[in-house]
Amino acid sequence: DQQVKQNSPSLSVQEGRISILNCDYTNSMFDYFLWYKKYPAEGPTFLISISSIKDKNEDGRFTVFLNKSAKHLSLHIVPSQPGDSAVYFCAAGGSYIPTFGRGTSLIVHP
Amino acid sequence: DGGITQSPKYLFRKEGQNVTLSCEQNLNHDAMYWYRQDPGQGLRLIYYSQIVNDFQKGDIAEGYSVSREKKESFPLTVTSAQKNPTAFYLCASSIDTGVYNEQFFGPGTRLTVL
To answer: Residue A103: phi, psi to the nearest 5?
Structure first.
C-alpha cells in the first residue's frame, strides 16, 4: 500500500506559467516532507523541504505548501522554465528513512 | 569535490550471473542506501546502512546483498536469484537515517540483463 502518492504521472505547462505538483500521504506520523528533482539518467537532487510545524516554505521560484488535515502537499514553481523539465519526487517520513512517491514528470514548453 | 560516485554507468550481464555495483562517498556520511527505479515505480528501497558493519533490508531486498566494511563504500551485489534485475540503480547517502537529513544521490547505474 502506497503511503506517499503522486497521482499525476505527468504534467505539461507553458514557460512562464505556474506548475503545481501534488502529493498525498496516508501516514499521520509523517512530520517531514521533501521534494527531489531528477533528470533522466541522473540521480535525484534535493529541492525543498517542509516540516509539519509549518504550512509553507519558499525558496526562490519554488514553494511547498502543506495541508496536514488533508494530508496533502504541493510544490509550486513560478515562473516555470524549460530547465525545470524533470521528474519530481515527493518524499515523506517521521524521523526515519523517507518513503518516496512514484514521481511526476513535468514538461515545460517554451 | 564532495559527492557520491557509482560505477559503472551502464552494466550488462548474462542471465544467471552475479554482478556487483559500486558506490563510494566522500561526504563523511554515516548512512548509505540503495534504491531501484523502474518506470512508473518511483524509488524503492533495497538495503540501507546506518553505520559501518551494519545494514538492514529495505522493501525489496530479495535477490540482493550488500556489505559495509568501510564508511565510504556500500557495494550492492545483484544475485542470480533476483528475478527481474534490469533496472536503474541509485545509491544515496545522508548524515544519518533520519528523514530530516536530505539524501545525496549518485548518478546511478543502469543494469541490463541479456
So the answer is: 95, 155
Question: What pLDDT is attached to residue B97?
Answer: 76
In total, the C-beta contacts within 8 angstroms joining chain A to chain B are 60
CB A96 to CB B108 under 8 A? no
Give the DSSP letter string of A62-101: EEEEEETTTTEEEEEESS--GGG-EEEEEEEESSSPPEE-
User: Residue B22 corresponds to which cell in the numbers above?
Assistant: 559500486
CA–CA dist A102, A84 (Å, integer): 18
Among A57, A40, A34, A24, CA closest to A107: A40
Q: Are strands B10-13 and B109-113 parallel, antiparallel or unpaired?
A: parallel
Q: From CA A65, how far away is CA B44, in angstroms rounded?
A: 25
pLDDT at A62: 98
B43-81: pLDDT as tens digits: 999 999 999 999 999 999 999 999 999 999 999 999 988
Cβ distance of A97 and B48 shorter than 8 Å: yes
Compute the distance between CA of residue B110 and CA of residue B12 in angstroms, rounded to an integer: 8
Interface residue A73 vs chain B (CB under 8 A) = no
Is B78:B111 a contact under the CB 8 Å cutoff? yes
CA-based nearest residue in chain A for residue B92: A43
